[in-house]
Design brief:
53% helix; 299 residues; four-stranded antiparallel beta sheet; elongated; alpha+beta; 8 strands
């Protein structure tokens, strides 16, 4: 199975102003990225962009042709921004004394070779994913591994204390809130007359689910005895939602006219609005806070 490399696009607005000028220098192979002693020319950047282009094509199951290149051209600036972030991270790795050994790169290369299609060689595979040669792939794998290593180091430094968790829980209550809900069945028919006939049968003791299965024109729900499950008022069209939330338990309501036809409704359960307790959402909240702290650190 062929590996597909698609770079995550991250935003650094300051680079937008440089994109048009920098890429226009391609014929002179001007520098598009500079950080300290490191510089990257337009041709070096284009070689990396080519790999990303082939990755997108593989992900979408299409060929790399002029149409695809034109379609993705507007995203080249964003890819440049992503590359800037990677260069910054590689510089941070250097400052921290992090490294990737030749053996680690070779292990990655061996993994790729082991997953090639039968009869395919690494030499024939490389052009299919945008690489000029094995040396370029090795360089790419080295940078990828080193970037992952420094990101892991940065993440390990991100901590969230109990006070921050409690404060975030208090200010983000809406994220963990469930609105008031009702659980109901309905029968949908085309005319008010038919709805009233069915209501009369229900009042005479007929089974709601049985009538829904036989007569409702809401096909998917009819097969379930008209059971809509539980829902908030805003999830339904206004007349239906208002009727359901104003209904008494186990009492037939309707006919209610909507754009879909005429409904008979029976609410069989009510659920009060609630907010999930902190302990139930702690893991989710901590992940959010750590992600935000890491993003701030990255920026």
């Amino acid at each position: 199975m062929k590996r597909v490399w698609v770079w995550r696009l991250l935003a650094l607005g300051v680079w937008f102003a440089l994109v048009g000028f920098a890429l226009a220098q391609n014929e002179q192979d001007g520098v598009v990225i500079r950080l300290g002693e490191y510089s990257e020319t337009a041709s070096e950047f284009e070689a990396r962009y080519e790999v990303a282009l082939y990755g997108v094509a593989a992900q979408q199951g299409v060929a790399v042709d002029d149409a695809l290149r034109a379609q993705l051209e507007p995203f080249k600036g964003r890819f440049l921004e992503q590359r800037v972030i990677e260069v910054v991270l590689l510089e941070e790795a250097k400052k921290r004394g992090l490294s990737v050994s030749d053996d680690e790169v070779q292990a990655q290369l061996d993994d790729i070779a082991a997953n090639l299609s039968e009869g395919e060689t690494l030499e024939s595979f490389l052009p299919q994913v945008g690489f000029r040669d094995e040396a370029q792939l090795r360089s790419y794998l080295h940078d990828q591994l080193l970037t992952e290593r420094v990101v892991e180091a940065l993440r390990s430094e991100v901590g969230v204390d109990e006070a921050a968790i409690t404060a975030a829980y208090e200010t983000r209550q809406a994220e963990f809130a469930t609105p008031e809900e009702v659980c109901a069945r309905h029968i949908l028919v085309e005319t008010a007359e038919r709805a009233n006939e069915l209501r009369a049968e229900l009042e005479a003791g007929a089974d709601f689910a049985a009538l829904a299965s036989e007569y409702s024109t809401d096909p998917g729900i009819a097969a379930q005895g008209g059971d809509l499950g539980c829902f908030g008022q805003a999830m339904m069209v206004a007349p239906f939602g208002e009727a359901a939330f104003g209904a008494e338990l186990e009492q037939v309501v309707g006919p209610i006219e909507t754009e879909f036809g005429y409904h008979l409704i029976v609410v069989y359960e009510r659920r009060e609005a609630s907010v999930a307790p902190l302990e139930d959402v702690r893991e989710q909240l901590v992940a959010q806070l750590e992600g935000e702290a890491f993003q701030t650190q990255l920026e």
